[in-house]
Amino acid sequence: MYFNTYRQIEAALKACTGEETVDLGEGGEHADFATPIAFSLAKKQRKAPAAIAAGLVEDLRERLAGTGITVEAAGPYVNFQVSGEYVREAVAAALEPGFGRLPERGERVILEHTSANPNGPLHVGHIRNSIIGDTLARAFRKAGYPLEVHYYVNDMGRQIAIVSWGFSNNPLPAEEGEKPDHHIARVYVAANRAIEADETITEQVDRLMQQIEAGDPETGRRFRSVVSHCLDGFKVTMKNLNVAHDRFVWESDFVRNGDMERVIAKIERLPQAKHDGTLSIDLTECGFEKDYVIRRSDGTSVYAARDLAYHTWKSRNFDRAIDVLGADHKLIGSQLQCTLRLLGERAPEIVIFEFVSLPEGSMSTRAGKFVSADELIAEVTNKAFAEVSERRPELPEEEREGIARAVALAAVRYDIVKISPEKSTVFDWKEALDFERQSGPYVQYSHARACSILEKAGAFERAFTFTDPHEIALAKQIARFPAVIDRVIRELRPHLLAAYARELADQFNTFYRYVPVLKSEGETLQSRLTLVAAAQNTLKEALETLGIDAIRTM
């Protein structure tokens, strides 16, 4: 309903102004839709924007006659209000299973996220990547796209060589019940301390890197073994965060199948290629002062060479590629994009997110200073269990534990995704566990409240008579959901979905506070229960797209 109305207004604006594109958005408190087009027309017509807006109104009213859309000028703005039919149709649409799903699309999309180095457990910083990426993936699927989600496994870098050396020369047995990724971290930290104490170990690590690139089978087996060990731990963590990947793609595969050498051969023929002991690319035309190194003087390739091979494969097999990268990858991400364009390949879109830090400071796996995602989940779950037990002491312990796990997941995922990716954030335990207005549990509670109302009401006949301003405001907020999904995937900004879910919860709770539902009678009761059912379904769909369980009781 939202899209149909938007397109009707947009077409009318284009027809009466002759403009190919028009600026049309939501009108906030004053209107359902509004346009500031009079400002841009003022330069061409040399008239005051308010006069232009007033002149457009009559033409627009004629073009929109019969649609139920009303048009008014408000100074330099033109405002549009929807009809009661819009409200009724919006509520009816929101009752359908899967509400918000957009029509199927043929454009193939690949989304890469997380891809953390397998040298220790995922920490609080890593999971911002995972949660942003997973939320985008859910939004793309909701928007009807065929999607494949990848984790790109770094199994050739120096950090993996250090871990491999540690297992061979300074093995530390796994402790009882220790997750594999935590075991890897202990070995990695110990190996780095050994290197600091004995510089000759660096030569042994360098030799391992040469052997892995040369295709030495024993070195390759050892590297893959330790990386697989770490990934086993990652998969448990990501499952607990409700994060999923379709494929784990190994960096070394692009060396073994020859893709990397083919890309390097193409780079060597570029006019921007520089051969001075190393192989690098002059990217000054893209604004970069430093050369982009592809191969070292000892003949070994750098990570960029394999990354270019991977993205060349993406370019040829998908219509749209998206990478989620931390701010420390901003430079190399831009260099990657520039190089791919020079090679004639499609460059990926990159979502850059700023870091999550702790009140105590930054995190370092090498130094062994981090709060693991596992510790975070365990701590939040314990606190959620205490909160649930205080609120619902009558529930069996097993049920309270289930609710606590769902609430903890909501607290973590929502707290991470609600912040715009380009903004840095300090992860605060207390804020993550705030079960009030700015949290995932608040949205969950609103959904549970709607479920409770419907359960108490029992069976009812659907009706669509809405006259109270709070009813109409809630219905219009519900109608926005498909448009929010569309905007999230167009702009790659998942925090917009988090903001919408909270706003919908606010609108529903305001409606519940001021409009009696179960105490109503007749058609009013049926209509209000119908609206509650539409809100419940929309909250459910929004929560699930955020990767949060839409639990029915809290």
TrEMBL record:
GO CC aspect terms = cytoplasm
Keywords attached to this Swiss-Prot or TrEMBL record, sorted alphabetically, are: Aminoacyl-tRNA synthetase, ATP-binding, Cytoplasm, Ligase, Nucleotide-binding, Protein biosynthesis
The organism's place on the tree of life at top rank: Archaea
GO MF, one example: ATP binding
Q: Quickly give the catalysed reaction.
A: tRNA(Arg) + L-arginine + ATP = L-arginyl-tRNA(Arg) + AMP + diphosphate
Any idea of its EC number?
6.1.1.19
- Establish whether keyword Cytoplasm is in the entry: yes
Q: What GO terms describe the biological role, i.e. biological process, of this protein?
A: arginyl-tRNA aminoacylation
Claim: Ligase is one of the keywords in the record? yes
Using the record's annotation, list all stretches that form the DALR anticodon binding domain: 443-554
Which InterPro entries does the annotation name? Answer: aa-tRNA-synth_I_CS, Arg-tRNA-ligase, Arg-tRNA-synth_N, Arg-tRNA-synth_N_sf, ArgRS_core, DALR_anticod-bd, Rossmann-like_a/b/a_fold, tRNAsynth_Ia_anticodon-bd
Task: Locate the motif 'HIGH' region.
Answer: 116-126
User: What broad class describes the main subcellular location of this protein?
Assistant: cytoplasm
Protein name according to UniProt: Arginine--tRNA ligase
Taxonomic lineage: Archaea, Methanobacteriati, Methanobacteriota, Stenosarchaea group, Methanomicrobia
**Gene designation:** argS
